[in-house]
Amino acid sequence: TPFQFLCSLCRIFKNYQFVLALVFAVEEINKNPVLLHNMTLGLDIYNVEFRAWTMFKNPFIWLFGKYKIPNYSCMRDRRSTAVLTGPSGITSDQIGTLLGLYRFPQFTFGPFDHALSDHNKFPALYQLAPKDTSIATAIVSLLLYFNWNWVGLLTSQDENGSWFLAELKEEMAQNRVCVAYELVVSSQYISHFLRVMAAYNKINNSSASVLIVYSDKDSLIIIVLSLEQMLIKGKVCVMNLQWDFTMKTRYFMLGSLHVPLIFTHHHVDVSGFTDFVKAVNPSKYPEDFFLARLWFLSFNCSDAESDCATWDNCPHDASLDWLPGHIFDMTMSGYSHNIYNAVYAVAQALHEMLLLQTEVHTVGNRKGRVPSPAQLHLFLKNNQFYNAAGDQVIWDEKSKLEPEYDILNIWNFPEGLELAVKVGEFSPYALHGNQLSLSEDLVEWTIGTTGTPHSICSESCGPGFRKSHQEEKATCCFDCTPCPENEIANVTDMEHCVKCPDHQYANTQRNQCLLKAASFLAFGDPLGMALACMALCFSVLTVVVLGVFVKHKDSAIVKANNRTLSYILLISLIFCFLCSLLFLGHPNTVTCILQQITFGVVFTVAVSTVLAKTVTVVLAFKATSPGRRMRWLLVSGAPNFIIPLCTLIQVTLCGLWLGTSPPFIDTDAHSEHGHIIILCNKGSITAFYCVLGYLSSLALASFTVAFLARNLPDTFNEAKFLTFSMLVFCSVWLTFLPVYHSAKGKVMVAVEVFSILVSSAGLLGCIFVPKFYNILLMPNKNSPYRFRDKKHSRRNMHSYDKTQRFD
């Protein structure tokens, strides 16, 4: 049928719009009373075959006439002042080499070609298409809009492809979009089946769902048609220009580029062009044999009895707008718009040239003269004007405005529709972030999908995770690693986790920092309450023991163990138990200072008292002769001076501590998760260990003396009790040091309080509990007469009498 035959020629019919655009522009200028007052424009159309040996046939005829003699032409037949070539850059290149010899103005209406911008090689060539200076930014903006960061690249092996590849890869690197694979091909490359298969494997096996194709029109068609045979499915293709989608029937139902997103140069619609195309028919342009051929094929101009097509059999009201949109487009295409601008550029230059000739020559001399084509360059190089549609046309490449882009999507449902729909636009002049506008609901994705395709190498790392890049892979390929302790990632795809401030802590999801609660060893805490109760109970018990000793001060046991030192020791133990309460509750400056100073002083008093009692016992049993020096020391009360002397040394150390680096309030934000521990910093650690070391040396001295006196007669002798008490005391504080340094936060304070209570309770229990037991429960043992009846009562009573006398 005619329509089936027409499908094989649809590309040629679509290119026929170039002819109609040229005719439309010429007729519009000729009707314009402002441009070219007494001169009209005409046109000649020549077909240039793509084959190399016939490419120059028609250009030679046009330049040199029917004789085709180089450098010779009849001036009477030569009236052309400019030539339009395109859309192929290859033909413009070949013809431009010939036209450049004669400085003949050449306009190319195809895509901008970097190879044609060499003014030394092509001094007379002007490119109408704008340079794609922002095409890379536009494409990357589209990728970022859909969150596509893993894409393939397919470019042609020419200067344009190399330029675009460099621009695109730089823009992608700045926006963290990665290249999954890169294919640079040519028409010769595609012709090899094995290499086509290699390209197919790379595209089809890649996890990238997006393929960016950049090429000139001819190379693009060759590449796409070759890859179509491989049936690569499920890919989204982003292309740089519009081309003839009807080259292959049902292409989008089978091929790899089922979802094409096409960037085309934005241009203003030219009013009147559609009406002009509707009015075109063979009777209006009888010399146009191609139009007649198109007409006969399109509208079935034949009768049932004869296969001969005649004009009389065609519908009289037939119009080109009857043809389907994919066969013939009624709106002006981008290439046709370039032709329209070229005609206006020539007319504007001719107009200015004629105005200049009017000023220099007389009207009579100007009449009938056609300007020389070489003269036209002077008026074309810096020519800037607005065409009838309102578009600004600039020839200078450095002054050209950056193009704006329309984004098209091909609708092919129902099958065969193949309708190009504008779904968005890109303007480089808009504010950053607003350059791309897209109607995503208008985009037709692959049949069977309900959402936007994904094209990423690795899934995004959610909050709480950071990106850990994989070795020897692109930056878009990474693993998701949980944030370390007390660090968060509150947005997706964070490179590094952020550490929470000291007053905050990370939640379990590691995506938010929460405010830490203040914490200290309070009286209300179970641990604090237990320690406080222990301190009060032991204090009360010590008071009870003291009261019992005071009440029975004249008993043998109390008198025999130096009741004054016993009173001092019991009172110091009361303060030892009570000083532990300073470690509980909310710390402040006063309590921080009193904690360590009180602890050091009262424990020094207690330990020095134990030392004095031990020395007294030793002196009592060694002073057997009244004339000996030890008897004099015992009688003079020298052991009692041990307490103030030892206490004075400790007070001096504490004074130096307070004068140099006293304790202060501090916070510990790391020991307990979610809490800031408020505690007392000891200030000078050296001073603290000096106080503790001095106290330890006193305890060691007391333990040594008591240990040496442990075998003395034990009627009322407490040397063994003092030995055990100091053994407990030293054991507690030797255990305290490693436990204290391994503890953190409130536990550290609790360890210190517990050590104070246990060591104090050890002194109380080992020294006074046996005496307390004898006084209350065994009163018969608290009488001196009880011991005189024993075999060794004399020796014991001798010891007792001596001790009693020195009490």
TrEMBL record:
Compositional bias of kind Basic and acidic residues: 798-807
GO molecular function, one term: G protein-coupled receptor activity
Record membrane topology: Multi-pass membrane protein
Domain G-protein coupled receptors family 3 profile, residue spans: 527-791
Bilayer-crossing regions: 527-552, 564-585, 597-621, 633-658, 686-709, 721-741, 747-769
Example of a GO cellular component annotation carried by this entry: plasma membrane
Subcellular location, record wording: Cell membrane
Alphabetically ordered keywords of this record: Cell membrane, G-protein coupled receptor, Glycoprotein, Membrane, Receptor, Signal, Transducer, Transmembrane, Transmembrane helix
Principal localisation: membrane
Chain residue ranges for the region called Disordered: 787-807
Composition-biased stretches (Basic residues): 788-797
Family assignment from sequence similarity: Belongs to the G-protein coupled receptor 3 family.
Name assigned to this protein: Vomeronasal type-2 receptor 116-like
Species, as recorded: Dipodomys ordii (Ord's kangaroo rat)
